[in-house]
Amino acid sequence: MGTTLNSGNTAWMIVATALVMMMTPAGLALFYGGMSRYKNLLNTFAMTFVAYCLASLIWVMWGYTIAFGTDIGGIIGGFDNFFLNNITVDSLNGSIPAYVFIMFQMTFACITVALVLGSIVDRMKFSSWIIFTILWVTLIYCPLAHWVWGGGWLSKMGALDFAGGTVVHINAGIAGLILSFFVGKRIGYGKEVMFPSSVSLTALGAALLWFGWFGFNAGSQLAADGVSASAFLVTNTAASAGAIAWMLAEWNHSKKPTVLGIASGVVAGLVAITPGAGYVNMPASIIIGILAGICGFYSVAVIKRKIGYDDSLDAFGVHGVCGTLGAILTGIFANPAITKTASGLLYGNPKQLIIQIVSILATIAFTGVGTIIIILVTKTVTGGLRVEKDAEVEGLDSAIHGERAFEIEN
Known about the structure:
There is one protein chain. By secondary structure, the chain is mostly helical. The protein has a single domain, classed as Ammonium transporter AmtB like domains (Ammonium transporter fold). The chain is built from 14 helices and four strands. It is globular, with a radius of gyration of 20 Å.
């Protein structure tokens, strides 16, 4: 990218930012809301919306400077851009306005913390979710974003994460898994069937996520060029392959190809292609999508049930597992013909795979330990993470918000 404003790149990045913004309060809210039980649908919407709003405010006040401020020891950004200080309408990030770059990166922070929600719907206190969101975005997401994208130590080591395999998906998946253990299982989990409120809403949410993901991945090139076009192509290809693979795996396992399974396969494919979207070619994206669909299904349908943890909407099974898979496969399939500076194991650079594994382990360790500390602080501040038993049985839409998503006739 150049050092003068490029109107074409700017126009594309404004559109890409709007696409990614839509993914949280529209796509993810519908995707998660439809999978939650009918009595908790509005609570799921509310928690998604408040996560987006809080992360947006944190980002422009202090989050951006922690992630992208002047590097301090490879660990964190300095506070030179606190409250966006020293940034004006004339400031550029490459060939686009700095404000556009800030907004684009903000949408990533918003959706990452919202993804965590999938592990604990139906049972977490609204006040605890608010405190957790503020602390987690500040202390986990922003430093990790600096490590990978802001000039931190993982970036200097050469870790490849084009659009968020480690920063977004592994990060959110690990945090969600840990939070689900601390909150505990839903009442009746494993003993009663917990039907989704609306598979139709989930399917619509998956479609909106798919649509918005083009901004997520192709936009991460920060330019309207060939690499962006390639990322656009492989994103759609991996999502399609993931959907078919999940469908076939489920069909073979349970003898029914469900709409929920197809929608989940789309997301699994999207997650897995995210870290390598700007580095891998189309044939590799098919392999990545197929493996994501298969691994995603078995992590949710088999492994989760055998272990017995209650990750309500499978944030770990889809985002944690498929994000890890995608990060590893990026180290294998990164093609120097796509981005001249990146090559993986298949192109004569086995070191890249080692670097990818280090970045995965570092993310798991940092997120895991940091999330536990934040959970303990949140419990102290709010007097516990979980709603009262009566509220959980009644449903959080009514008990917390005094509203109902559906009118149910007696």
